[in-house]
What does this fold into?
Amino acid sequence: MRAQARTSTSLRSLLLRTLLVAAVMASASLLVANGTRAAFVSTTVNDANAWEAGSVTISDDDGGFAMFDVGPLLPGDTGENCIEVTYNGNVTAGVDIVMYAATSGNLAGDVDVAVEIGTGGGFGDCTGFAGASAFTGTLTGLSTAHFDYGSGITMWSPGATGQSRVVRITWTLGTDTLSSQQGETAAATFTWQSQG
It folds into this structure.
């Protein structure tokens, strides 16, 4: 009887262990099945995005030389020179090129200048120049009215790289220059600037 009870207990224990192993195996199968279940997937990508700053660079054909270095002068003496300014930037919208000046010296108020903007000619030779008047007055008047980008004389708004304009500046020492101005000097810096 005892042997029968032991056998019965052993059978029950074996049966419970078998059921337990089967339950564990079933749970593991469910986990694997859920982890590898197929799903519908769709992806779209927009790659290789990049940004590059544009340039609004300009240059001129002066070769590093001043437009004017003249004297000694007498009242009524006059002269001219041209300079070509070229837009080399790659931004072609919303860019303006302007001209302004800084002057010094007691003679600046007696040197009359006419600034014209057009085409034809180049540095040291105005042959073929044709343009329109942009300023008439004295050197002092030029630098007083047009002293920075905001107050500068608008030359043009380039629509493409490589466009250029020629500036012709004609100067005359005023005939009303006083004898007291003898030996006096004037100096000027002409600036062309592009912004966009």
Summary: The first strand starts at residue 58 and ends at 60. The longest helix spans residues 2-35.
